[in-house]
Amino acid sequence: MSELARLGLVEARARLRRREISAVELTRACLEAMERGRHLNAFITETPDRALAMAEAADARLARGAGGLLEGLPVAVKDLFCTAGVRTTAGSKILANFVPPYESTVTARLWAEGAVLLGKTNLDEFAMGSSNTTSAFGPVINPWTPPGREPPLVPGGSSGGSAAAVAGFLCPAATGTDTGGSIRQPASFCGIVGIKPTYGRCSRFGIVAFASSLDQAGAFARSVEDAALLLQAMAGFDPKDGTSADLPVPDWSGGLSGRVKGLRIGIPREYRLDGMPAEIEALWAKGADWLRAQGAELVEVSLPHTRYALPTYYIVAPAEASSNLARYDGMRYGLRVPGRDLVDTYKRTRGAGFGAEVRRRILIGTYVLSAGYYDAYYLKAQKVRRKIVQDFEAAFTRCDALLTPTAPSAAFAIGEKSDDPVSMYLNDVFTVTVNLAGLPGISVPAGVSASGLPLGLQVIGRPWDEATILDVARALEEAAAFRALPPGAPEA
Amino acid sequence: MGWTIRGRTGEWELVCGLEVHAQVISKAKLFSAAATAFGAEPNTQVSPVDAGMPGMLPVLNGFCVEQAVKTGLALEAEINRLSIFERKNYFYPDLPQGYQISQYQAPIVGKGRISIDLPDGTTRAIGITRLHLEQDAGKSLHGAREGVTLIDLNRCGVALMEIVSEPDIRAPEEAVLYLKKLRSILRYIGTCDGNMEEGSLRCDANVSVRRVGETRFGTRCEIKNVNSMRFVAKAIEYEAKRQVDLLEAGGVVEQETRLFDAAKGETRSMRGKEEAHDYRYFPDPDLLPLELEEELIARLRAELPELPDAKKARFVREYGLSAYDAGVLVAERAAADYFERVAAGRDGKAAANWVINELFGALARRGLEIEACPLPPEALGELLDLLAEGTISGKIAKEVFQKAFESGRRPRAIVEAEGLRQVADAGAIEPVVARLVADNPQQVENAKKNPKVVGWFVGQVMKATGGKANPALVNDLVRRALGLD
């Protein structure tokens, strides 16, 4: 494997600027790595021709001494971001042949900054899942799967393809979306960094919607610095999204210090779950020690409504999804299965086009919004959501950031939790609260489990304070000195 | 007691409220930048947002919000500082998102009122329950092509104001007056063109009946598709009578949605209560709650023009018009403006008569709106001046009016060019009178016995002078020639 495929964004960027390497060489190295890594099923669509053309254009700009923040840097894009002229499936059969005529704002920003599109990554269907096993394009395999192990390990989800592609050195960075943990949990399972910014930081325009009040785009990379750089290019106000925030985007990558001295780090009492694996508990304590050692002050805080977060999430998200997915009706684009009459056509189209998990969530969402149930479920969930927000507001009067585990376990095997949706949903227990409150959160690899699988720690910040969680994550990254590599990773 | 239905068993009263969908005048749609022109080629005014494409998001059009606030102010209604857009979920091919963005629990405008002018000269207030903003659906074209339904999404996403009245209407004719008044106000403030033929103004009626004296409401039916002024009263009356017949026969009124069939003049069941949709309304997570600032409301209030009621009162006060004439003149803002330009510095009543009788008549005959009037108000004013000066007679004035209306020439120019100036010179009329007296000795004798015959002489003089002679002067000269003075 080419040494170039090992490069992170920041390092590659420096070498591109110095003209030591070209964008075309770098892109070729990634395309070759993608070819060799096809067994991971990380990509739904590879775009080699487009990638090379974009790389050539980037080289031309670099040669002129011009170029944007990500000039010549290849990235993968979760197949939930609409890309003009490139098939965008959302991991669903119902959009299997959908080619959007428009570009999402986030990807448009990437291309404007000179990034190169390698392809569209696999995901749970419509981003609904925590294991990337609900994709109509087959499950993604976690690069950390020990050789010969059957069934293989999941990369987490829903942004499993992006996480596997970055962890498996198929690309230096990738975009993801996070509705209940869909960036942070796969980052934890795959031993990489994943950041979800504050709700409203990245435009949702052109991102296939799952749950609009929770969906937020974010970044995967192999280092905090790289993740900061990618996110910086993705973020920013967009008048095409009414929930986008009109705030300047700070120079997160340039401003990254990793200094935590004097910061107050909250440890939320309620995140200590019964039956949580001891190794997770131990890693969490270790994380706290590392930060204390670097001068942070650790404080115990309380988020009393934490135990209601998961049920709240699994009412709000399906409710919004049931409405957001109504547009996939076979009338204008996507799959259409003709029936006897209009209603029959709807039933056949949606029955054939949506997988079991998507159908389950549409049913749940339709139910909780129905007359007679709305108050008991949806309205109640909205009230609890408000309480959860207030919990965080209160906690942040006592600390500057929160430290928690990212997920309650390391990666599990494909099929392991598939027959029990509730145990699958429990994967999101530490991450959904952050989406419900619209806060920024980051997962950083901090250690390995007894079986040698990566485990992540999550840092949660105040709204719009991505800078602080990036610094805390950088401090953890440095202290953890996480050097483990997945089997088959390129040699240093 | 006003309008009632006399049934077999007694008198029944109508209880009716209207739900009006008024298309907001705006170049762009409520949540997208696509155009809204009427009559464009199908599917040429559709953005990816309107078509419900994946990942597309609604962005609220601030101008439509201002239009709704303006309308609320004109309806003397509460403007809600915070309102919420919600999704009304249902599947239909002309609803690409699978939901309509509307306002449900928190509309932008609350309670208001419209005052209607009853034929007996009194006025009645009809309450407004609320006004909310929502997007229109597309159009399904059934049968345009064999075996398929075609969809036109041009209208999809166009901003509508749903204006709901209180159940205050007690007579079918009041519903018409309410609609006319509402339409007039909307046109005054430029928030809806009120064109019912093009569907810019659509009306549903909620109808129930109860025995006279009863205070509780009966079960209501919603009548859809009452989309012309002509049919509103018909549909309501038919439905009220149907309910009375049903109740008197021992039946019960089912709460249902009924469709008005204009061709047959009857209503028929569309869907019953049990088939009613569960729309699963919930706040649209793509749109933040809409907050209105006081400055905006104050600015829009300041921008409101004089409204029909105020204008009518002023016309009565300033021009001495009858309430009826004033009401006719203010129905359309353009007509009222026209009248005021004619009346400026002139006799208001005369101006009103000419505008209402001659001008409106001529426009109606030519099928023209006041905006397309070929006769500018200055020209009509000139005609009134010619009349007031005594330059032309009333009879000639009508002739000149027709000529000016048809040719666009100015009245004074027509009078000069065609020699229509009134003859007020006794020297020019005396020879005509003298000849008539000489030629008709018998009539002269008759006139001496019967003064009414004087009129015959005056008529003959007028005829001989082509109507140009000043009638008062002719009268004087005739009487003198006949020795009657």
Helix content of chain A: 25-40%
Number of E-type strands of chain B = 16
Query: If you average the pLDDT of chain A, what whole number results?
Result: 96
Q: Name the beta content range of chain A.
A: 5-15%
Mean pLDDT of chain B: 93
Main attributes of the structure:
heterodimer, A: 492 residues, alpha/beta, Amidase signature (AS) enzymes, eight-stranded mixed beta sheet, B: 485 residues, alpha+beta, Arc Repressor Mutant, subunit A, nine-stranded mixed beta sheet, three-stranded antiparallel beta sheet, 16 strands
How would you describe the overall organization of this protein?
The complex is a heterodimer of chains A (492) and B (485). In chain A, β10 and β11 form a beta hairpin. In chain A, the strands form 2 sheets. Chain A has an 8-stranded mixed beta sheet with strand order 4-6-5-10-11-9-7-8, with helices on both faces. A 3-stranded mixed beta sheet of chain A has the order 1-3-2. With 492 residues, chain A is of the alpha/beta class. The mean pLDDT of chain A is 96. In chain A, α2 runs antiparallel to α3, α9 crosses α11 and α9 packs across α12. Chain A is built from 15 helices and 11 strands. Chain A has a domain of 334 residues: Amidase signature (AS) domain (Amidase signature (AS) enzymes, Alpha-Beta Complex), CATH 3.90.1300. Helix content of chain B is 39%, strand content 20%. The relative contact order of chain B is 0.10.
Précis, in short:
The complex is a heterodimer of chains A (about 500) and B (about 475). Chain A is α/β, with parallel strands linked by helices and about 500 residues long.
List the helices and strands and how they pair.
The complex is a heterodimer of chains A (492) and B (485).
Chain A: H1 9-17, H2 23-36, E1 43-46, H3 48-63, E2 74-78, H4 105-112, E3 116-121, H5 160-167, E4 173-178, H6 184-190, E5 193-196, E6 216-221, H7 224-234, E7 264-268, H8 278-293, E8 297-301, H9 309-324, H10 342-353, H11 356-369, H12 375-395, E9 401-405, H13 421-425, H14 432-436, E10 441-448, E11 454-461, H15 466-480
Parallel strand pairs in A: 2-3, 7-8, 7-9
Antiparallel strand pairs in A: 1-3, 4-6, 5-6, 5-10, 9-11, 10-11
Chain B: E1 4-6, E2 11-23, H1 62-74, E3 82-83, E4 85-89, E5 99-103, E6 112-117, E7 123-135, E8 139-145, E9 148-152, E10 159-165, H2 172-189, E11 201-211, E12 221-224, H3 229-248, E13 256-261, E14 266-272, E15 282-283, E16 290-291, H4 294-303, H5 308-319, H6 323-330, H7 333-343, H8 348-366, H9 377-389, H10 394-407, H11 411-417, H12 426-439, H13 441-449, H14 454-464, H15 471-481
Parallel strand pairs in B: 12-13
Antiparallel strand pairs in B: 1-2, 2-10, 2-11, 3-16, 4-5, 4-15, 6-7, 7-10, 8-9, 11-12, 13-14
Helix pairs in contact in B: 1-4, 2-3, 5-6, 6-8, 7-8, 7-9, 9-10, 12-14, 12-15, 14-15
